[in-house]
């Protein structure tokens, strides 16, 4: 019967379990999650109630009014011997959980009335663990219930040991336990409430107010609020509060402290939390700054220093720990965390835990798409990656001593044997029969010794001990014949099981290093051999790498051109070890840099062999790809700048194209022959002495062909492809091309301005050298009169205003605080063309710009002063010297400001003075200094609108002499007949190419250009020498079109058409100017007659005309007419008299008179100019401007071309050429 009942019970239980499982399967995961959350909040509420009730009951028991202390008779019965009491005090000082029963038994049997002070001091000073706090509470509770004075003594020593000031030093681990014990004693009612609450309040103030910079006490506060936060502050953790609100449950409250006191604790801890949030945000910004520095180093230098990597890892680890602690603390006190989610941290590549920081900064996913594998084929991958694990094949007892072996004290001190003294195994006297070689000797008897557990089988050699040296020599002799993977693997296994001793390992390293220099085929197998031994014999790999580095260093500094095979063997051995990850990649990068630093002769071969061995592996590895690419580019640059023989050139090219993938080299499209010739002329052949030659060749190019013209324009717009010293020659070449291809030169200037603007918008580190070259080119174009000063100053103002935030609050993407590129561009432009700004108005404009430039300098300087000195790049700190050198080179009296506020005051004072001058010129225009200063703070999307308007207002009033403005106004009016100067009177036709974005400014005709240039030069010569180069343009009233204007325009066109129609019907008398050659002498020879085809002579006799006689003027002119004899085909001259009143004679006399007047005028101007120069030299008017020019004439001015037909239009005060507006 009992069995049947048990069977039924089992069936019912299984049925119920099956039903429950089906119910759970029906319920979704959300229901399970809600159940778990509900259970969690219910358990928390029950725990709080139990804790509050327990602490309330303990306070009731420990209340002095409720305690019945023992009588004296009871205490006299207890043991009060000194020996046992002192021993008990020592036990308290060395408290341990296992001694709990013994301690409690001694407490009941001992009379400790005379040792209460020692006990209280021992309890306070002892260092306990968190799990020993309940035992100590039990002891304190027993002592408090038995001895009345124990509470006061305990409070006394707690007050003495707890920190009272933020400057007090304390042990963080002990204070964490003490805070918990002290809080429990207060909640148990063992300590006096008034004094103890004051003490713990002061302790919280010390822990919070004294730790708002390092936050080292955060762990202590987390432990306090986790255990007692509800009792002392009334704050429930946010997670539990949200769960209670979700399920509409009420949380119990603690009545230990009044709400006013809890509010004070809440305010204190919230203030500490706000400081913590600010600190976290600050630390994260520093991490981003360090990351940007590493990116900059990776882009510029190709590697990141080890110190910077270690610093970044340490700071990253500290920040992650701090962030996790802050998250816990924020949840405990129910406060918001800073705006950094944990998900973002997990996905942030900056905080990824990795051993290689370069891999963090490298886009691994994109790199793997282009480089899917490290190896070319599967067999190569198997050889270098599938290494047998000798630890699983060999018993541990055979390699334990090699794992414990300490590294040699100094491997570099070992003597390096020369190649001639090394033992060459290939030159053995006795030949070796390969068939007789066996990796394991057949003479040795191999026994298998089985242990009792049959778990391990050990192979031991029972050969003759005296034959061990012979066996080792045989083994070393057989290594050169291990020419496949299986044989070298067996050799590694044999050495591990048979010859693994300290002396044998040293001999093995020497044998591996002394591999024959002609057996380069053994290096991959020897490297695999070492890779197998490295896990169990690390010292073998370390010694081998050290000796290879020493030999490389020895051969590099030896500087002899012999033993090239030994040098190649060393670098190829290093390259093979890299593939097995035995040799460090950092060390091989240093080797590459060392070789490239002296890239000559044998070093070229060593570099190429090293690239051929491991270059492809390094190039395809994500952590070394960028550095390898930079090294390859450096090698190719060195090749292009060196004169190497054909053999070395082919070797370098083979090494480069072996490493770089084929798709990158084959995708390059070959240029046409004409384009390649243009590149050669401009980028290679152009220098100061070949400008005339290059000009003549370029003029012969087919400029009518669209592709050729655009390619020449592109080449002329690329100064970064030239040497920096040849940029000046390129600008001079561009000036002379303007005389023949003006439209193309305008396209080049447009490209230059576009490059400057794109550089300000993109702000890429890779284009810094390109931007420097463009700035130099732009300044040289001003020196050669291709652009005017207004465009120069507009560009300078754009560099210091476009996208720059002068409010110093938020950083700009276009111009970050640590980016000094724009500063260097302005300095480059000013140092190139600043000393040619000689006129008074230009010097005035330059002075005003320097005040704005100084303000920009102090904007950068103030940000650098806020950073630690060790975090700033030394190249950034060079702006002080660069700024002072720029100011000094301009030779202008400029007072430097000593602070940012001083620079702002100087700028404001100058602008106020400028405003007064501007109102005299433009009385109807209102100029605000505040708007000008605010106008420099542009956003990127403002497109320089506000800035340029402000600049135009500034530049308008910078002038000293009104006569200069009037003279220059006349000059620009004359030139405006051919060039559009931003007004609508004269326009330029524009053409847009379908394949090019550059706008072509098209002039009316070449004749009009030449005529305009002549008028321009004549007008400038008539003006005084003090006339400024640039004029102030005052815009007139704005025209608003209406219907009356349209009617007037239609009527005017109708009248003009009628006039043209009527004039076309009238006969027009031709007035053709005939050029008449003049006879040079009276020689009537046949040769002279043939040369003087149409000669002219005057009739000296008196000729009667209309019956009158004129002695003053001849009435007839004799001309010689050349005719052709029909019979003999010889030319004949016939004398013809033409009256003086004929059109032919009158036109000739008019031309002769005009030429004579022109000669006289030019002669007068030259004489006047020489007189003015003599007066200027005597008076010393230009000493300040020409003091340095007289000393450095060869460097400050370009050399004049030797070819008389070649124009060198460098900027001067006496001649003005065409300019670009």
TrEMBL record:
Q: Does the keyword Transcription regulation apply?
A: no
Q: Where in the cell is it found?
A: Cytoplasm
Domain of life according to the entry: Eukaryota
From the UniProt annotation, give the residues forming the signal peptide. none
Name any GO cellular component annotation.
cytoplasm
Query: Where is this chain compositionally biased, Polar residues type?
Result: 1182-1197
Note the Pfam families from the entry.
MIF4G (PF02854), Upf2 (PF04050)
Q: Where is the composition biased (Low complexity)?
A: 1010-1019
Q: Where is the composition biased (Basic and acidic residues)?
A: 19-32
Keywords linked to the UniProt accession: Cytoplasm
* Positions of the MIF4G domain: 82-291, 473-662, 676-918
Q: Which Gene Ontology MF annotations are present?
A: RNA binding
What biological-process terms (Gene Ontology) are attached?
nuclear-transcribed mRNA catabolic process, nonsense-mediated decay
Task: Map out region (Disordered) in residue numbers.
Answer: 1-32, 1006-1031, 1172-1221
What is the name listed in the Swiss-Prot or TrEMBL entry for this protein?
Regulator of nonsense transcripts 2
